[in-house]
Amino acid sequence: MARNETLIQASPERVWEVLADGWTYPLWVVGASRMRAVEEGWPAAGSRLHHSVGTWPVLIDDYTEVTAVDPGVSLTLRARAQPSGVASVRLTLEPEGSGTRVVMEEDVVSGPGTLMPKPLRDAALSWRNDESLRRLAYVAERPVTAASD
Length: 149
Fold this sequence. Notes:
- The structure is a single chain.
- This protein has one domain (2-141): 2-Layer Sandwich (Alpha-D-Glucose-1,6-Bisphosphate, Chain A, domain 4), CATH 3.30.530.20.
- Helix 1 (12-20) packs across helix 3.
- The protein is built from three helices and seven strands; from the N terminus they run E-H-H-E-E-E-E-E-E-H.
- It is of the alpha+beta class.
- It is 25% helix and 45% strand.
- The N and C termini lie far apart (47 Å).
- The chain is globular.
């Protein structure tokens, strides 16, 4: 299983706000290119994000489903990225000083991606997830401003 972690200079509550806002998914997840729908109740167990992967004009519609959640602490997802397969992704938030240590663990659980030798698969996932965590930090650390009327 690929394991990445980073320290985000934002509170666990702020990082959770980003994760709990399904519409931000393509802002921080490498490979997700657009959101089509966020099911009511996201990120409750069983709820789904409907997204597309790829780049225009070759976009594949897919979804990611919550398999377990401990609000503000952890989120476990079953991420579909066809045709390469399905992955299990777990994000854990740990307070650290005034920030949040985010640990991301991922592995492919079905589909053609499982045919890649594990060391190569872990290396590819680690590279991708390092960038995803960097993007998550950019979103969570940005100043939150009130909407203007």
